[in-house]
Amino acid sequence: MMMMANGNLRVDLKLIADMVEPGSRVLDVGCGEGALLDWLGHNKNVDGRGIELSMAGVSAAVSHGLSVIQGDADTDLKDYPSGAFDYVILSQTLQATYEPKTVLSHMLRIGRRAI
Predict the structure, then answer these.
(1) Are the C-beta atoms of residues 64 and 48 closer than 8 Å to each other?
(2) What architecture is the 11-114 domain classified under in CATH?
(3) 39: Cβ contacts below 8 Å, ≥ 6 apart
(4) Could you read off the pLDDT of 12-62 as tens digits, one per residue?
(5) What are the residues whose beta carbons fall under 8 Å from the beta carbon of 68, sequence distance 6 or more?
(6) How many distinct helices (H) and strands (E) make up the chain?
(7) What letter would DSSP give residue 22?
């Protein structure tokens, strides 16, 4: 269930949100229904994008007006240009990847900072 932009985030997502600078560009890998992206967009004026494996998660995020595509972190991060984002966030997703080292390498290539 997605939290509203003015609602409370889960504790772990709030800790991540506190690390993100206002106005930055963010890619949330494994964004689920987009709760973090929604909160960051409304509260920190972040230009957020998401990639999510679950079509249900993508549908929920898109229905809330978020820019989220269906994709797989193991295979699709290679398509993002280097330095395209200020932050690349991976929360509760790494354990579900088959190629964690590759995923982390792409995160560091795509973003100025990886969380």
Answers:
(1) no
(2) 3-Layer(aba) Sandwich (3.40)
(3) 3, 5, 9, 13, 17
(4) 999 999 999 999 999 999 999 999 999 999 999 999 999 999 999 999 999
(5) 31, 34, 37, 49, 50, 51, 52, 57, 58, 61, 62
(6) 5, 5
(7) T
pLDDT tops 60 at residue 2: no
- What whole-number distance in Å separates Cα of residue 69 and Cα of residue 52? 6
Q: What is the DSSP string of 21-76?
A: PTT-EEEEET-TT-HHHHHHHHHH--EEEEEES-HHHHHHHHHTT--EEE--HHHH
Phi/psi at 97 (5° precision): -90, 155
pLDDT recorded at residue 3 = 46
Q: Where are the domains of the chain?
A: 11-114
